[in-house]
Amino acid sequence: MNNDLPTVYSDDARSIRHSIIAALRDAADPDKASLQQAYMKSDMPFYGMGVPRSRQISKSVLRRHEMPDAAAWEALILCLWREATHREERYAAIQLLHCKRYCSWLDPVRAPLVEELVVTGAWWDYVDTIASRAVGTMLSARPGQMRPLLRRWARDDNIWKRRTAILSQLRAKQATNTSLLTDAILPSIGEPEFFLRKGIGWALREYSKTDPQWVLEFVAKNPGLSGLSRREALKHLRRTNSCG
Known about the structure:
With about 240 residues, the protein is an all-alpha fold. Helix content is about 65%, strand content about 0%.
C-alpha cells in the first residue's frame, strides 16, 4: 500500500470526527449493538443502529462541514477510518468517500486511498459498498486508467482486492465492459474462497438483468464455475423463465 497518504489530521478533521461520534453515541442501542457485532463477526464493536439510521446521522453532520479541497476530504476519510473505535465510524468514512458532492475527486489518484480501505477493512460490509460505488465511479470516469488497475487487483493475493475488481461494475448495467468483467472473474473461478465465489455469482446475476444471453454463454463456456457462482448467476434468469 502507498505510504504517501496523510497520517496527520487537522483540528477540523478531528472536530468533525468527534461530532459524528457524539451523534452516533446519542442514538446508540447497546442491545442491538451486541447482536450486530455477533452477526457481522466483528472484532470492532457497534454503537447499535440500523445502517439507514447510521447513514442519516453521518450525512447530517457531514452536510454541515463542506470540504474545502480534495486533500481535506481524503484526510477526513482516513481520520474516520484509522481512528475508528466502532464500526459505524468506518461506515461514515465510506459514506464520505462516495458522497456525490465530492465525486469529481474520485479519480485514479485516489487508488491508494481505496486500496487501504479495502485491504484493512477486509470484510464484505465495507468492501462491497466501496467496490460498487466508489470504485465504480472511478471506473466510469477514468476507464482507461482504472481497467489496468482492476485487472491487476483481480490477480492479487488479497481476496478483497479481487472481490473489489469483480464487483466494480455491479451498477454499470449497459455500460458494463464485458472484457473487464471476464478478466476480473477468470482468475478466481477455481478459488475455494466463499467471498470470491459469491462475488462472481452476484456480478453475473446483476449483469444478467441487462444481457441475459451473455451471462448464459459465459456460464456455459466456464464449466469450472463453482456451484455457488453458477446458482447465483442464473438465479434471476430461472425466476424470469419460471414466470414466463
